[in-house]
Design goal:
The protein is an alpha/beta fold and 460 residues long. It contains 19 helices and 13 strands. The chain has an eight-stranded parallel barrel with strand order 6-7-8-9-10-11-12-13, surrounded by eight helices. Strands 3-2-1-4-5 form a five-stranded parallel sheet, sandwiched between helices. It starts with a strand and ends with a helix. Bound molecules: sulfopyruvate and magnesium ion.
Length: 460
């Protein structure tokens, strides 16, 4: 009897790494490829370069492949139980990477019918990601932007609970990075608050982008931007995204509310209004389809609990947003316990990473978020609130004392400011450029050289 072999793969840009696996697989029997559908790839590493249909067309021309079927999830189990192949063949790189749990599950499932996992030595230095990297390496600026989105994506998809911290201008962004955080939350509340504006889209999207540009220019860690409800419809949202990408912002969160937005912690008579689910899905889809940086992250923020709905509405919407292409879902809640998030996590079958903002349930132990399987926690406004607190005290004290004597020891020094803005670097550069002596680099004109030669001749 002919043996059967299963290979699950994305095969976004077919390369000799794929061919090595497929050749080996064909030595074991008839090969079925479980080709990852586009929706898995949206949340896995990057959006696909090629669609399912075009990837399938390319694979059909590979003689080692007998059959191609859809693989609907990163988990191979469903297709394996259907086909019961004698072998699964895969590159051995997943033994130690973030997909090792998928490998372990496959080994267990194969035991049900005595199947076997065959691992092919990973073909070094070739993968779709490596190809993209090679191309973008030509362009340092874009590469840096792409790297930032990649870092944010790694953070969201990591197995560990991760944390990102609020910043609202260039200086606070530097301070967050200095503290050791791997990412920054550019909070809409704090960014508009720092401009003296309400969190009701009083700052235009381009004014927001201007502040974000200062922030992105001074840090190496990725910035996840609070994009509110996208400043309008799908078109406004994608224009906003495109401007974020051009300024090196790593990703954006859009909430399923109306424009102009209302802060989630403000009580509104009759409850806050949600966006139509399909309209919001179209917004997410449009942003995903128009992004240029393949790693740029779009997170869909679920406001169902904020608007007073229960778990059914929340779950229905989360599934839809994920299907529309959201890389992660931010589940927001305004109650003082983690009950909303607990209930959500009980039902969510880990289709994509979940992000939370525990501003109101701040007393829930962080370990609990770990146990729930949360991907990332946003500490959403605590730098801005601490600035307000300290500035209020300082102003009051100086006003009352008509002296600086009581505040000096409690606040950052002027030297601190110089250190953050790297004054010493400017000094170094000044010594090089202000009195730049170019004379030794000037190549004399030919006529001048000839004239000098003539002078020498004449003197002889
Ligand atoms: C923000 O920080 O602007 C947020 C989070 O959107 S919250 O204020 O909790 O809605
Ligand atoms: Mg906000």
């Amino acid at each position: 009897m002919n043996k059967t072999v299963y290979c699950g793969m994305a095969c976004d840009i077919l390369n000799h790494g794929h061919i090595n696996v497929l050749r080996k697989a064909s030595e074991y029997g008839q090969v079925t490829v479980g080709l990852f559908v586009d929706s898995i790839l949206n949340g896995y590493e990057r959006i696909p370069i090629n669609t399912y249909d075009t990837r399938k067309q390319v694979l059909e021309s590979v003689s080692y492949v007998s059959n191609i079927i859809e693989q609907q999830s990163l988990d191979f189990t469903e297709n394996l139980r259907k086909l019961k192949p004698n072998y699964v063949v895969h590159g051995d790189n997943w033994k130690n990477n973030e997909y090792s749990h998928i490998r372990e599950k496959i080994i267990d499932v194969l035991k049900e019918w005595d199947g076997e996992l065959v691992e092919v030595p990973y073909t070094k230095d070739i993968s779709t990601s490596a190809i993209i990297e090679k191309i973008v390496n030509e362009d340092k600026l874009r590469n840096n932007y792409i790297l930032k989105s990649k870092k944010l994506r790694q953070l969201l998809f990591s197995d560990k609970l991760e944390f990102i911290m609020e910043a609202h201008n260039g200086m606070s962004a530097k301070i967050v990075e200095e503290a050791g955080f791997k990412g920054i939350w550019a909070s809409g509340l704090c960014l508009s608050g720092s401009l003296g504006l309400r969190d009701n889209n009083e700052a235009s999207w381009s004014q927001v982008v201007d502040v974000l540009e200062y922030m992105a220019n001074v840090v190496d860690i990725p910035i996840l931007v609070d994009g509110d409800s996208g400043f309008g419809n799908f078109n406004n949202a994608r224009i906003f995204c495109s401007n974020l990408e051009k300024r090196g912002i790593a990703g954006v969160v859009f909430e399923d509310k109306l424009f102009p937005k209302t802060n989630s912690f403000i009580e509104v008579e009759g409850g806050q209004k949600l966006a139509d689910m399909n309209e919001f899905c179209g917004k997410i889809r449009a942003c995903k389809e128009h992004q240029v940086n393949p790693y740029f992250v779009v997170v869909a923020r679920l406001e169902a609990f904020i608007a007073g709905y229960g778990i059914e509405e929340a779950m229905k919407r989360a599934l839809a947003y994920h299907a529309a292409g959201a890389d992660a879902i931010l589940v927001h809640s305004k109650i003082s316990t983690s009950a909303d998030v607990d209930e959500f996590m009980k039902r969510w079958d880990n289709r994509c990473p979940i992000v939370i903002v525990p501003t109101k349930y701040y007393s829930t132990p962080t370990d609990h978020f770990k146990e729930l399987g949360i991907s990332t926690v946003i500490w959403a406004n605590h730098n801005f609130r601490s600035c307000i607190d300290v500035m209020r005290k300082t102003s009051k004290q100086i006003f009352e004392d008509q002296s600086l004597a009581n505040v000096e020891k409690n606040i950052a020094t002027v030297k601190d400011i110089f250190n953050y803005t790297k004054e010493a670097e400017l000094k170094k550069d000044e010594s090089k450029y202000v009195n730049y002596d170019v004379s030794e680099y000037i190549v004399p004109l030919k006529e001048k050289v000839e004239q000098e030669q003539n002078n020498v001749e004449n003197e002889k």
